[in-house]
Specification:
Blueprint lengths: L2 H10 L9 E2 L6 H19 L10 E8 L2 E7 L3 H14 L11 E5 L2 E5 L1 H8 L1
The structure holds zinc ion.
């Protein structure tokens, strides 16, 4: 993910990305990650309006790719946030990690990757 994309993400998520975090997802997943973070941020903004819950704002710890699938760890998460993450995970296996096109999961060595046919053939050469 490019620096400009990370900057856009931080701007959209002043609460959830306020603390130290690690985002290491491939560029093809930017839209997906952006949407997921925006939805988590909206939940955080709502919690922020309730004075008594403000101590427990959701914070994104890391977002990364693991076995061709998006993983995201959040502290102070809740059921709604878990749903948002689960939805993004399901979408991530259908999106090419490199370009965002429609993808399938493939085995590469001991790993699983999610990529389009074009990128799959590039890497199997
Ligand atoms: Zn691709």
């Amino acid at each position: 993910m490019k620096a400009a994309q990370k900057a856009r993400l931080k701007l959209r998520c002043p609460i959830t990305l306020a603390r130290e975090h690690q985002i290491t997802v491939p560029a093809g997943w930017f839209d997906l990650v952006y949407q997921m973070c925006a939805e988590i941020e909206d939940i955080a903004q709502q919690i922020n309006q309730k004075r008594r819950q403000r101590m427990f704002l959701p914070r994104i710890i890391f977002i990364e790719e693991h076995m061709g699938k998006l993983t995201c760890e959040v502290i102070n998460g809740n059921k709604d946030i878990s749903e948002v993450i689960k939805k993004a995970q399901m979408r991530s296996v259908q999106r090419c990690m490199y370009c965002g096109d429609e993808a399938h999961q493939f085995r590469r060595g001991g790993n699983l990757v999610s990529c389009c046919d074009r990128h799959r053939s590039q890497f199997s050469l």
